[in-house]
Structures are given as C-alpha cells and as structure tokens.
C-alpha cells in the first residue's frame, strides 16, 4: 500500500497513572475535635515550599493537609531535581469551557484525597485555603461541593460564582474570606471584589480584605489568614 493509500486503523486513549503526594500534620493535643485545613499552592510551587511558607498557620490546633498539584512543570534549565520541580493544578488554554472541565477534574482528585483522609480522622470542620492557581481551584471546589467545606479562603484569585448557575441556596452555609493585594498586577483585585459583592448580595457570609501587597504570597497574607481562622475556630 502506498503512503497516499494509508489510513488510520483506530484511535483512542489510555490512562497514565501518576502518584501525587500529600502530607498531613496534626498540631495541638491529640483530639478529634479540631478542624482539617487543606492547603492548595500556587502555580510553580510544590508541597514542601508551600508548607514552609505556611509554617505560621501550623500554630493553629488542626489537621494540616498539604497537597501537591498533579501536573509537573518541567525545569527547562535542568538545574533542579525532580523533587524540587514546581507543579500546577490544572491545564488551561484560555478557553472558559476548558477551564471549568479542568477545575472539575482536579476537584475530583481533591475530593478523593479528602475522602481518604476522612477514613483516618474525624475533623469538626473543613477549611480550604488556596493561593493564586490554587485559589481558583479552592473556590470552584467549595462552590461545587459545599457540603464538604465550611471555610473558604481565596488569596490572589477570583471566585468563579458563575459555576453556581444562580443556585445560591447551596452555598449559604459557606464562610468565605478573600484576600487580595492592592498592588496585584497579575490578578487585579476588582473582579474578586465584584464576586464577593455577589456572594454577599445572595446571603453568603463573605468578606474581602485588600492588603498592601502584590501577587506574591507574603507573610502579610499568612498573618491575615491566621487571625481570621483563629477567630472562626
């Protein structure tokens, strides 16, 4: 058969499995009467680096679960060991439909991790903290699975309330804090401000706090989270 006569016999897809690490740390006295805090890092970060950044939050008596994004970011300079590579939470090409599909796929993964944890521990509430890319995932996960989240903290990202399709009653038990840098040029604060206004208008307990920072996840963000969670707990 000539090249011009060749044809594709079949097309398909096959699953490729990759192990994604997470770490859970219990602080305070041994007790079931404490919250579970889920930490979702930003683009290009990893579990270890994000845990270092959030060390102040481990002063809270809680189960602290740090999860790594499933998609590795190849170090093109070849200067890092694989264990030091950064990771992302989803694949995004600018298409809004693809964005939602990617967020849903990562949320299913996240739900699986949380279900596994709940077979081992019995927290009295679940708080989800997400920064930047992790903030988009934290928001989507919490809005689409509100029965599994009590507190949502989103830093330097926008909560995509459009995924609710105006089903506001499903999220009225959520407790929401949005933190955003006044000088954030990468993710402007104004869209998030509008989202918080929409949440509040629809009787969701939500607040936005603008801080004198840019997009970087600085200690100022962490101190604000610590103070808010300490008050809520």
What general form does the structure show? globular
Query: What is the count of helical runs?
Result: 5
Radius of gyration: 19 Å
Low-confidence stretches: none
Counting copies of identical and different chains, the oligomeric state is single chain
State the end-to-end distance: 72 Å
User: Average pLDDT across residues?
Assistant: 93
Describe the structure.
There is one protein chain. With 233 residues, this protein is α/β, with parallel strands linked by helices. It has helices at residues 47-53, 96-118, 133-144, 189-201, 219-232, and strands at 22-26, 36-40, 63-67, 71-73, 86-88, 126-131, 151-155, 175-181, 205-211. It has a seven-stranded mixed β-sheet with strand order 1-3-2-6-7-8-9, with helices on both faces. A two-stranded antiparallel sheet has the order 4-5. α3 links the parallel β6 and β7. α2 (96-118) packs across α3. 33% of the residues are buried. The model has no long low-confidence stretch (mean pLDDT 93).
